[in-house]
Specification:
The chain is of the alpha/beta class and about 260 residues long. It has one domain (about 5-260): 4-Layer Sandwich (Purple Acid Phosphatase, chain A, domain 2). The chain is about 20% helix and about 25% strand. The chain is built from five helices and 18 strands. The strands form three sheets. It has an eight-stranded mixed beta sheet, covered by helices on one side. A hairpin with a 5-residue loop joins strand 3 and strand 4 (about 30). Helix 2 runs parallel beside helix 3 (about 100-115). The two termini are about 25 Å apart.
Length: about 260
């Protein structure tokens, strides 16, 4: 199937993939119409406080950036079209403990969605990532449904990406949506200036796949077109031909690039 047959430009700001997944200029999250879900990933809440404990002092921008992204994206999609907010892993930042700032921001994030953003009940679902140890203990008080690594919803298998998906769930789905890698591409200007931008990655193998960029303000991403497959974070990406993936950027402009193999230096 031709590359363009998967994509439909609704206007200069909106791209629809496979007649179901909406990507909008300037936003690092998606809306999936058939499952009435907004999906975002790699929030890394509490990032600035964890960095400060390691001697790196950053302005507290991440939570406000994420809330602004979600608020404006929801307005463009329409609140009545959304029943689920799905976080596809790494809602917090620390690996092996819980920092108080992470929990404070987690409660602020959920409270904002439930009481400020929506005037109706919405489901908040978390598919756990490798940073999300101990989040289960707060699920009841937050009224958040937590899934260990993956979730089959409609035709989609949603998984974070640090593990290979369950084979039975993989076989049952038509389309994979994953995170974890924080994809970005690097381009060089005519004078050698390096330009890096976050991107979505779309591919069509035995299953279609979409890899989400990190929504975290401070997560700049993995240089997908510069690194060899062996150096990627996700074991699943090491099982497919990443050179066949198609980058889609949304910062400042909505643009579909040629496949990764044509962007290697």
């Amino acid at each position: 199937m031709r590359q363009n047959s998967f994509f439909k430009k609704l206007n200069d700001e909106t791209l629809i993939i496979d007649d179901d997944i909406y990507i909008i200029k300037d936003y690092h999250l998606i809306f999936v119409k058939s499952i009435q879900s907004i999906i975002l990933s790699d929030l890394h809440l509490g990032y600035e406080n964890v960095a400060a404990k390691n001697g790196v002092f950053l302005p507290k921008l991440n939570l406000n950036h994420i809330i602004e992204q979600i608020d404006n994206f929801v307005l463009k999609i329409g609140k009545n079209n959304i029943n689920n907010i799905i976080v596809l892993g790494d809602i917090k930042n620390e690996f092996d403990e819980v920092d108080q700032a992470e929990i404070d921001e987690l409660f602020s994030f959920v409270h904002h969605i439930r009481t400020t953003l929506f005037d109706k009940d919405v489901n908040i679902l978390l598919v756990k990532g490798n940073h999300d140890n101990y989040v289960d203990g707060y699920a009841l008080s937050l009224n958040v449904k937590v899934f260990r690594q993956e979730l089959l919803l409609g035709k989609y298998l949603l998984f974070h990406g640090e593990d290979i998906p369950n084979q039975k769930l993989y076989d049952a789905c038509d389309f994979l949506i994953m995170a974890h890698e924080h994809p970005a591409i690097v381009l060089f200007t005519e004078i050698g200036e390096r330009v890096k931008t976050k991107c979505f990655l779309f591919g069509n193998f035995d299953k279609k796949i979409l890899i989400l960029p990190a929504i975290s303000y401070y997560a700049q991403g993995t240089d997908i077109n510069l690194l060899p497959k062996e150096e990627l974070l996700s074991p699943f990406l090491k099982t497919i031909d990443i050179d066949e993936l198609i980058p889609i950027i949304v910062d400042s402009d909505l643009f579909i690039f040629p496949k990764i193999k044509y962007l290697r230096y």
